[in-house]
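#onboarding

Welcome to the new folks! Below is a worked example of what a typical request in this channel looks like: someone posts a single protein sequence, and someone else replies with the predicted structure as tokens. Don't worry about understanding the tokens yet, we'll cover that in week two.

Example request:
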Amino acid sequence: MQGQFDLNELSRWIDEARSNRDLTWKQISEEVGVATSTIRRFASASDAEADGVLALIGWLGVAPERFVIDSRVAGMPLPPAGDGMIRVNMEQLAELPGSSRRARVGSRTTIQQLARAAQASGRTIASLT
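Example response:
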């Protein structure tokens, strides 16, 4: 489905990078600050918390739009995470068309909600972090 975030594809990329870098799942988990079980669950999940997904995309060094099916937006890589975690700017997200009205400062969002709002507004996912 156009505009949907493909967690299964992200999972394949993470596994390939893990293998190429000769890392364990635990080592990736420690490096990015996302639980091993969460990372491995992406292979079969349809949605996940955006912060963890973005941390892993930052670790891969690619644009989040690489994993958005038929993205309308040319992506750009995420900025480096100062504290190891990339946070969604909920103030900006709440103002976008296609964003959930429940998107409030201090709350969290899923990667599907973030991708949908970014696509609807023509903005990159990186611009919302």
